[in-house]
Every structure is written in structure tokens, then in C-alpha cells.
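Protocol step 4 of 6: structure prediction from sequence.
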Amino acid sequence: MIRPSQLLRLLRINYVLMKHGLDDIVFEIHLFRPFRIILFLNPWNWMPRKRAPRGVRIRQTLEDLGPVFIKLGQMLSTRRDLLADDIALELNKLQDNVPPFPADQARAIIEKSLKCDVNETFLRFDSEPFASASIAQVHGAQLEDGSEVIVKVVRPDIKKIISRDIALMYVIAELAERYSYNARRLRVIEVVAEYEKTIHDELNLQREAANASQLRRNFSQSAALYIPEIHWDYVRRDVMVMERISGIPIGHVDALVEHGVNLKNLSERGVEIFFTQVFKHNFFHADMHPGNIFVDLKNPDNAQYIAVDFGIVGSLSTDDQRYLAENFLAFFKRDYQRVAQLHVDSGWVPRDTRVDEFESAIRSVCEPIFEKPLKDISFGQVLLGLFQTAQRFNMEVQPQLVLLQKTLLNIEGLGRQLYPDLDLWKTAKPFLENWMDEQIGTKAMLKGFKKNLPYIAEKLPEMPNLIYAALSRAAEGENHADQQLEMRKLRKEISRSNQRTVTTIIGSSLLISAFVVYSLNPVSGALIWGAPVMSWVCGSIGAAIIYYGLSD
């Protein structure tokens, strides 16, 4: 049931859609389909007009609809498995250039969360924010010890706005799936549910601070990537204080060239950072678009990356890591049968998938790619092609792989923007091969031994007692087995004795009967016809039963 506030919001959405020339989307909704004639009555449809590409119009629509829809567009841009390339690429351009909220409101949120006065907490607090996004905005500040920091503050009432718009999105998604085949194919309700989880995670700045701390520990000894320090005394759900960094945005290539940065090294280092996060640390920054990456210029020939904004991170299971690495290695060997089998073994496609048919489909997609020089082959496009092919074989959506694909596309795009001749395979192959060796080769065995060595050392003094206990249990087991055998023999002997007793009684009865019959027979003649014969037969049988019963 649509509430009045939701109905007003829905009308506003429809107006914006029509304003940007997306009338056909409005009138695809079953509720408005009877009014499709309005398309022809609208004056702007009477004359031919030049429209921007559909991807541009969709992006502009989301920007006009506000922060929640901008964030939705950013999330959708990662779902290359669901969207056409032109739309996904355009949505990737969505930026969080949202008008800031007043500094007084920011101060009030900080003071409520930290339970202290802003002027007492900071030596300086900049009222003018230097960045404003859909979820939060960022102010510069200085701590009492002189440290330069940034203060990230969640927008006031953003939770209420998000809840309202997400509830409306579910209503629209349910209507769309009910009446539109394309909506069912794109699983729009599932997309909204995924978006709801993502945006609620980003609303919690404590979670983002924890992600940043983990990444900082992972790269604490690295010269490749720097993660700013989190000031945990000033972190709450709505507020986060973090070290302020300085550097050139990664997208400003001209400025990097002007400062003498070695772009080849920088691009290759970006690839190494990605594979280190995914395969070594198994914890990767999943929102590495140009707005979140900067370059430190202290050492231009070996420049260091700086990352910010840690609201979205990803990780893979050990099995997913191994299957992914093997997929890449098999792909570049053109071993399509192996690629298909890996998808089945991993559970990414149903177990009853015919591997030969799947292999043929993968070959038809991948072979044209190998007509290009190896350095021009896109890892991201390879992964996208594999997933789109697998989708035809009922591959289930794997959220962890979607995040990985998005991150790989971002990293690859940045690398080739910096250095167009970047050979991604040349950089990645040694890393993947070494990682595989560590997982299943000699290194893996040594690593496992090293991992268990502290436990072995801890138990070593107890080993004699443990060995004695094990041998005692084994001996007790043997004794127990012997006892069981003897009991079975005893039961068998008792049973045989019972049988002997029964047969002896029966044989004796027959013998007594024979004697009685014979005794009753007079010497002068038989009172009972055939009595001598009967007594002889009974006596013989009785004697035989007793004999064989006792000799058994």
C-alpha cells in the first residue's frame, strides 16, 4: 500500500524521468500503461529533437533525484553483469557533488556524538567543508596535539530519507517485476535489497574506521600504499576523525607528469596493490575510483598511493581465491575446459551443467579477445565476459565476485590511464603463480608446518604421556576385544549344552517308551499288534539321538 508521502515522491520521480526524456520508462509501469497516449500529446514529443545518449539521461535523472538515488546509481555501476556497457560506464561517472549542509548542524552532530564541545575538542574546526557527498561531508580540523585531521560527519536526517526512498524502491521494484519481463530478468528486488545493505553499512562510520585500521595494518610495512591513521577516541557511528593527507588526485595525470612521477612504475604498483589485497591479505578496498585515490610526491620515481573512503570493502573465501586464480591462469593458457570445470567445481554454476557445452560457450567469447596483443587484454573485461557467459548457464549472483570485478575494472582503468601500454598480465602472472605455489605446493606444506609449530612445541613435553595413554587405550581395546570373543564363545557353549540336554531328554524318553511297550507285551502272544517292532524302533531312534547329541 502506497502512503500519501510515497505517492508524492513517486510523482516527483515520474516528473524527473519525463524531464530527461525517459517517458518510455514511466509508461512501461502497468499503472500508467493505459495513459501512453500522453507520450504523443506532450508538446516536446511533437517535433524531432536530439536527445543525449540513454546512459547520460539516466545519470542526469539520478543526480536530480538526490543523494539516495546517486548512491543507487553508483552501486548499479558495479553490476556490469546486469546492465548494458553504455549505461554502466555512464553511471560510473556519478560523483558525490552534493550541496553541503550548514556547519551549525555539523557541529551539533559532532557535539551530540562525542558529548563534548567542538571548541574544546579541536584547536581549529573549519566551518566550510572541503568535500560533500551523498552520505556525509568532511571538515578540516586540528587536534590539541597539533595533528591535522579531517572530521567526517553523517548528514542529518539522512537515515529517514534513505528509509523513505528504499521503501518506495521496493514498491516500484515489486510492481516492475510483476508486470515487466526485463525487470524480472534483472532481478530488481534483489538489486534493491543489495543496495539497502550497502548503504546502511556506509552510514556506520565506526565500521568504516575499522576497515581503515585493518587496511593500515596490512600495509604498515609497505611503500606502495598509505592508509591514514584513525583517531579512535573521536569515532562514533555518526562521526569519524582521521589523519589528513595531502597528495595529487590520481586522475590528474598532467599534474603527475609535471611533478616528474614515473607513470609506468605507478601503474604497475597499482596492479600489485590490487593482487596483494585480494590474494595475500584477502581484504580489499572495493571503492577505488579516482576520487578516492591520491599520489604522494615525496619520491616521484617510486611514488606511493594514498587511499581514502573505506565504506566498502570485500573479501573472498579461500576456495573463491583459489578458483579465481586458477581461472585467470587457465584462461591465459586458453584451457577453456579447465575454466568451465572450475566454475562447476566452485558451485558458481549448477552441478548438472554440461561442461562441454559451457566450454564451447566460453571459447566463443574468449577466442576473439586473444586476437589482440596480450598487453591490450583487459582482465576486467575477461571476468565480465566469463560471468555474462556463465549467467546463460544459470550462474547465481556472487556478491563477493561482483565487488572484486568492480575493483579490478577501476584499478585497470586507472593503470591504463596512467600508462596506456600497461601489460597487466606480465605484472599479474608471477604473482598468481607464486600464490598458487604457496597454496598447493611445497611452500603450502612448509607454511602449514610453520603455522602448527607453536602447537606442536606446546604439546611436546606431554608427548611421552600422550604416547603411553594412546598405547594403553590400544591395549585396553585389545583386551576388550578378547573379552568380547570369550563371551561369544561362552554363549555359544551354553547354547550347545542346552541343545545336548534337550536331545538327551528326548532320546531317553524314546528309550523308556520302548522299554514300557515291550514289558507290557505277554510272552504267550501280542496283546498289542506289532508291539515288539515299535519298541525296537523307538529304542533305536532314542539311542541314536543320545549318541549324536552327546558327541556334537
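Step 5 (inspection) to follow. The longest strand covers residues 136-143.
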